[in-house]
Specification:
It is built from 12 helices and 21 strands. It has helices at residues 15-26, 41-46, 48-67, 81-105, 157-160, 177-188, 208-220, 311-326, 355-361, 377-380, 409-421, 426-431; strands at residues 6-11, 31-35, 109-112, 116-119, 122-125, 128-137, 141-143, 169-173, 192-196, 224-226, 231-236, 242-246, 251-254, 256-259, 263-265, 298-300, 340-342, 348-352, 365-372, 386-393, 399-405.
């Protein structure tokens, strides 16, 4: 048998790679990992974790405004961007040390630098070559900018977390979850925000009722939402301000333009093509249900495969890979009924099929839907409404999907996701006693079908 330096070499120290390496080491494998930037990956370093911290910061403005209706007198308030960013950076540094420690405590060897494949079993990083019996690609994705003149003047989510000062006027390009989340963050912190998207409506892929409801709510919050709008070019004035030209001939003056128009798999320069690893048209590693690439001993997990680009999914894929290859416990990561949340303002929670997807797959579908003012806002006076929706297979009574726009949507849908994963029926929901008074109880008190 050929002797390699390690049994497993992981390229990428994000959530999926770290989980895979830790579990493989626990199964007795000799493991090494290379990370070119910071351990923790997109989610921990410049994604969901710092973004959620910024969301929390931006929500205080709403709280100050709402307090008056409950008898509180709130004095003058002010916000300091530099303090927020410094405190955020301190927390991210703490988490990075934990992620690196998880690897090292598991007995894995870490390398700092960008790795590339020299041949099918050899990885080069930081001037060293290491041979491995199995290689795991877990390099995640990276933001892309639209191809228009002046695109180099734009920032992405990567840079947004490190801006030296808060821009007073921001244009966010895109209609996905990153775009709507950052639009809400900047708006809540006091910036003047325009959200520009070329598509018909924001949050493509989500339930249409969710998309339309959120669009209406963010417009109420003061965000200038422009859908079905193309961008032409971006120019910089002598004073440093920017001018974004739109397809309808109008323009928007601003201090920053943030491109949230998509991400691409981070596979460039890894040497994958040279060793026969098949990539799709977007550069994603093509894998089977076992996360195995076209090369037998090379696997890939997480965003670099462009399957479901969510951190918990990458973790599941990495764990399943390690159990299968090194733990003698073969299993595949389950990609069905994966819940997700968008930390927009108000937030979105979703699990299972949208109404459109259900109608394509089932002959008859029942829809239960409600929209109401949250109890908090009966006194605050804020003009905000919650949306809740259940999608049900009429023949079996099974709940196929649940969708929500409103406070704590992610927290609520996480519990609902267990029921949907367990194939609960609408009768099961109806038989469940609600917790009163909560918004969540509406999911078990929906009785009237939406007339088709």
């Amino acid at each position: 048998m050929t002797q390699y330096d390690v049994d497993l070499f992981v390229i990428g120290g994000g959530s999926g790679g770290v989980r895979a390496g830790r579990i493989a080491a626990g199964h007795g494998a000799r493991v090494a990992v290379a990370e070119e930037y910071r351990y923790g990956g997109t989610c921990v370093i410049r994604g969901c974790v710092p973004k959620k911290l910024l969301v929390y910061a931006s929500e205080y403005a709403h709280g100050f405004q709402d307090a008056a209706g409950f008898g509180w007198s709130v004095g003058d308030t002010s916000f300091d961007w530099a303090t927020l960013i410094a405190n955020k950076d301190k927390e991210i540094g703490r988490l990075e040390r934990i992620y690196r420690g998880l690897f090292e405590n598991a007995g894995a060897k870490t390398y700092d630098g960008r790795a590339r494949l020299v041949d099918a079993h050899t990885v080069e990083v930081a001037g060293q070559q290491i041979t491995a019996g199995t290689i795991l690609i877990a390099t995640g994705g990276t933001p892309v900018k639209p191809e228009i003149p002046g695109a180099e003047l734009m920032i992405t989510s990567n840079e947004a977390f490190h801006l030296p000062e808060q821009p007073k006027r921001v244009v966010v390009l895109g209609g996905g979850y990153i775009a709507v989340e950052f639009a809400g963050i900047f708006n809540g912190l006091g910036s003047q925000v325009s959200l520009v998207y070329r598509g018909e409506q924001i949050l493509r892929g989500f339930d249409d009722d969710v998309r339309n409801h959120l669009a209406a709510e963010i417009v109420k919050s003061g965000i200038d939402l422009r859908v079905k709008t193309d961008i032409v070019k971006l120019e910089q004035a002598a004073d440093g301000s920017l001018l974004l030209h739109l397809g309808d001939g109008s323009s928007i003056a601003c201090d920053a333009v943030m491109a949230a128009t998509g991400r691409k798999p981070n596979t460039q320069g890894l040497g994958l093509e040279a060793v026969g690893v098949a990539l799709d048209a977007d550069g994603a590693v093509q894998v089977d249900a076992w996360s195995q690439s076209s090369v037998k001993h090379i696997y890939a997990v997480g965003d670099v495969t462009n399957r479901i680009n969510l951190t918990p999914v990458a973790i599941r894929e990495g764990h399943a890979f390690a159990d299968t290859v090194f733990g003698n416990r073969p299993r595949q990561a389950d990609h069905a009924d994966v819940p997700s949340a968008v930390f927009s303002q108000p937030p979105v929670g979703s699990v299972g099929l949208t109404e459109a997807q259900a109608r394509q797959r089932y002959s008859a579908v029942d829809i239960y839907r409600t929209s109401f003012k949250p109890m908090r806002h009966t006194l605050s006076g804020r003009d905000e409404r919650i949306l809740m929706k259940l999608v049900v297979d009429a023949a079996s009574d099974r709940v196929l999907g649940a969708h929500m726009v409103g406070p704590e949507a992610g927290e609520i849908i996480q519990g609902i996701a267990i029921a949907i994963k367990a194939k609960a029926t609408k009768a099961d929901f109806d038989a469940t006693v609600g917790i009163h008074p909560t918004a969540a109880e509406e999911f078990v008190t929906l009785r009237e079908k939406v007339k088709q």
